[in-house]
Amino acid sequence: MPQQRTRRFVAWSLVGLVVLAGLAVFSLAKRPMTTPRYAASAWEATGGTHTGWLDVDTEGSTVCFFVANGPEYDPTARVGLVLPDTYRGFRLSVVERGLTGPAPFISGPSIWAGEKIAQYPNAVTLKGRPAAGDGWLADARAEWDRYCDPSVESVIVVEPGTLATPGE
C-alpha cells in the first residue's frame, strides 16, 4: 500500500510540474503588451484621413505607436496613436498567432489580423480624430499620457478598422 501511494504522489507531482512549466511558458511567451487604447464602442462620428510612416517606441512591455507625417519619414513630426481596444496586445509568442482568428493584435512593432495590417517603419493610412476635448477623447489622451510621452503635442484616436498599409 505505501508503494502505491508513493507512485501516485510521484505521478501527481510530475503532472503538477508539467502544468506549472506550461503556465510559466504561457506567461512569458504571451505576456500582454501595453499600448494606449480606448473602448471602440465609444467611437462617434467620422475621422479625418491621415497618412504617414508608422513609428514605434518600445520600453519594456509598453509600445507607443506614432505616425510620422509627410511623404518622407520625419521623426520630428510624429503624432501619437491611440488604438481601439479591438487590437489586443501580446508580446512575440512561441505559439503561432494565426490560431486566434482574425481579431487584430499587436506583436512587437507590428499589428496583425491573420495577415499583417501595419509594421514599423512602413507607410500607413488611417482615419482618426484628435484626442482633445471632453469625454472619451479626453480619456484617450489620458491613456496616452499614462503609458507614453505626455509631451507629445498631437495624439490621434484611430477609428476602428481603418488602420492599413496604403494600396492593400
Describe the structure in your own words.
There is one protein chain. With 168 residues, the chain is α/β, with parallel strands linked by helices. It has two domains: 1-30; 37-158, no CATH class. The chain is 24% helix and 33% strand. The protein is built from two helices and ten strands, in the order αβββββββββαβ. The strands form two sheets. It has a five-stranded mixed beta barrel. The chain has a four-stranded mixed sheet with strand order 5-6-7-8, with no helix packed on it. A hairpin with a 2-residue loop joins β6 and β7. The longest helix is centred in the first third of the chain and has 28 residues, at 2-29.
In short:
Helices cover 24% and strands 33% of the residues. The chain is built from two helices and ten strands. A hairpin with a 1-residue loop joins strand 7 (110-113) and strand 8 (115-119).
